[in-house]
């Protein structure tokens, strides 16, 4: 174990990926799918052997002069190279897929985006669906470990806007050995919680009626916010509203980073937490707007008195809005009821706006993040107060104890970087031949790691029919969205740092 810690970070990730390949291989053996089992077994052994050889050859190398740059570069290289290894057995198991499209599928899963080339779930064998869900689940776990073990000491990933950022300034100069010890400590703390929550949700979904295989995949998709499903979504399951209620509860770790408060020794968040408050305001407000819109449409066609349909429409809107806010992308089984009740087209732009807001900072959710939105709200109040009372002395409220004096401005910079990335991605997608509406939905989905956003504007768009240049653009946007634009900028600005 001590020798393994001396391996480069990317080599350790390759070893973990090789070990994960044994899971779908064993499942394929149980189903007597010899072709898939052999593909995953062979690639697992090959990549594990290569990783060990490379690790032994590089374990005594000189420590990096700038540990922060080394760690951020390791994250970037993981998202660039790991999908290639993960795609190799997948491409070998799906005839005619090709390594390029398999790479896109695995990159989508690893970044917890959930964009898939397979619109018909029946076209893939169960072990391949399990592999997609497992890669997404491991991708979510990697996000948590890198966020708390690497980005937090560097005041990135959302930590830069909090009051605690000043306390972490001195950790920037830590050695690579200290960084490794911190990552191992975070790994040991997060792993039992992450695995335990996934197992608990899987058991609940099984009790609610889902098949064990579907329950496990949906549990992994929920905790990682990847939205990967072997049956095309929750509508293909059997757990019904009871399963959706439990999934909604288990989405809370993607709403506030304080849900994992054990990492900082704090209590679980209450209704006073700004991220929880903003989530409730966003979800309830959008749900109310959707219901009123549908109620007016239903009244026009004389369906307004159907109370059962009205109740199902409320729940369908509530759950779907929460799922898109956390960038999981699940649609409620009653989401279709909301549209059929009123006979109105789907409210795609509203869901896109909710997706852009995103979940909590330092969680597996994507988007701009709730705490940044709260910081921008505080900044707006402060600036309006200065316009009205330029000589006044402002009061220090609870929000000022959460957001640092520079946090709101950094949040504004992040928002501008996000909008610039969105505009560039949309322009690149439009240049590849896609329409404006589809370019908008795809760009938002990639940058917020919510690939299911492709369905919100209708039109029958599909990742499977997109040209290779469009998939390449989306792949780059997924990496930027997962690492966040501010981290990417910091990676290249670190070239000027001195050890």
Describe the structure.
The chain has about 500 residues and is mainly alpha-helical. It is about 65% helix and about 0% strand. The chain has helices at about 1-5, 10-20, 20-30, 35-60, 65-95, 100-110, 125-150, 175-210, 210-225, 240-250, 275-300, 305-325, 335-340, 350-355, 370-390, 400, 405-430, 435-445, 470-485, 485-495. The protein is globular. Residues about 165-170 have low confidence and may be disordered.
Short summary:
This protein has 499 residues and is an all-alpha fold.
Keywords:
499 residues, 20 helices, 65% helix
Query: Could you give the order of the helices and strands?
Result: HHHHHHHHHHHHHHHHHHHH
Mean pLDDT over all positions: 84
What is the helix content? 55-70%
Number of separate helices = 20
Strand content: under 5%
Poorly predicted sequence stretches spanning 5 or more consecutive residues: 166-171
What is the strand and helix layout of this fold?
Blueprint: H1 2-5, H2 9-20, H3 22-30, H4 34-58, H5 67-93, H6 99-110, H7 126-151, H8 176-208, H9 212-224, H10 240-250, H11 274-300, H12 307-325, H13 335-342, H14 348-357, H15 370-388, H16 398-402, H17 407-431, H18 436-447, H19 468-483, H20 485-493
Helix pairs in contact: 2-4, 2-5, 3-4, 3-7, 4-5, 5-6, 5-7, 5-20, 6-7, 6-19, 7-8, 7-9, 8-9, 8-10, 11-12, 11-13, 12-13, 15-17, 17-18, 17-19, 18-19
């Amino acid at each position: 174990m001590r020798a393994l810690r001396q391996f480069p970070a990317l080599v350790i990730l390759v070893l973990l990926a090789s070990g994960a390949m044994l899971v779908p291989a064993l499942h394929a053996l149980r189903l007597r799918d010899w072709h898939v089992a052999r593909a995953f077994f062979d690639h697992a052994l090959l990549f594990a052997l290569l990783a060990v050889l490379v690790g032994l050859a590089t374990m005594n190398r000189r420590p990096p002069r700038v540990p922060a740059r080394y760690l951020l570069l390791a994250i970037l290289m993981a998202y660039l190279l790991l999908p290639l290894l993960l795609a190799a057995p997948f491409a070998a198991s799906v005839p005619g897929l090709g390594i390029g499209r398999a790479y896109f599928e695995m990159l989508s899963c690893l970044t917890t985006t959930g964009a898939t080339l397979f619109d018909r779930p029946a076209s893939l064998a169960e072990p391949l669906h399990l592999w997609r869900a497992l890669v997404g689940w491991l991708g979510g776990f990697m996000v948590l470990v890198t966020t708390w073990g690497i980005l937090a000491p560097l005041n990135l990933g959302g930590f830069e806007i909090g009051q605690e950022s000043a306390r972490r300034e001195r950790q920037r100069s830590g050695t690579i050995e200290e960084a490794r010890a911190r990552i191992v400590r975070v790994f040991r703390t997060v792993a039992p919680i992450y695995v335990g929550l996934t197992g608990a949700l899987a058991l609940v979904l099984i009790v609610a009626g889902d098949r064990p295989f579907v329950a496990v995949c949906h549990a992994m998709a929920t905790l990682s916010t990847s939205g990967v499903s072997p049956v095309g979504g929750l509508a293909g399951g059997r757990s019904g509203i009871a399963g959706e209620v439990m999934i909604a509860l288990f989405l809370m770790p993607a709403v506030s980073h304080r849900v994992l408060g054990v990492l900082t020794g704090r209590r679980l968040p209450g209704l006073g937490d700004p991220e929880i408050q903003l989530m409730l305001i966003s979800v309830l407000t959008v749900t109310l707007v959707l219901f009123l819109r549908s109620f007016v449409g239903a009244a026009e066609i004389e369906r307004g008195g159907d109370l059962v349909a009205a109740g199902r429409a409320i729940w369908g809107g509530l759950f779907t809005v929460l799922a898109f806010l956390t960038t999981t992308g699940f649609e409620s089984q009653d989401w279709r009821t909301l549209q059929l009740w009123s006979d109105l087209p789907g409210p795609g732009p509203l869901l896109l706006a909710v997706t852009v807001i995103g979940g909590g900072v330092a969680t597996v959710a994507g988007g701009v993040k709730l705490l940044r939105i709260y910081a921008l709200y505080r900044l707006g109040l402060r600036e309006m107060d200065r316009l009205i009372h330029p000589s006044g002395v402002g009061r220090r409220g609870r929000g000022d104890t959460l957001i640092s004096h520079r946090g709101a401005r950094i949040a504004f910079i992040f928002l501008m970087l996000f909008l610039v990335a969105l505009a560039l991605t949309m322009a690149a997608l439009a240049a590849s031949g896609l329409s404006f509406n589809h370019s908008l939905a795809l760009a938002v989905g990639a940058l917020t790691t919510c690939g299911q956003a492709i369905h919100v504007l209708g039109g029958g768009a599909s990742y499977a029919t997109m040209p290779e240049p469009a998939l390449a653009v989306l792949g780059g946007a997924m990496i930027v969205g997962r690492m966040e634009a501010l981290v990417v900028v910091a990676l290249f600005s670190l070239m000027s740092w001195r050890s």
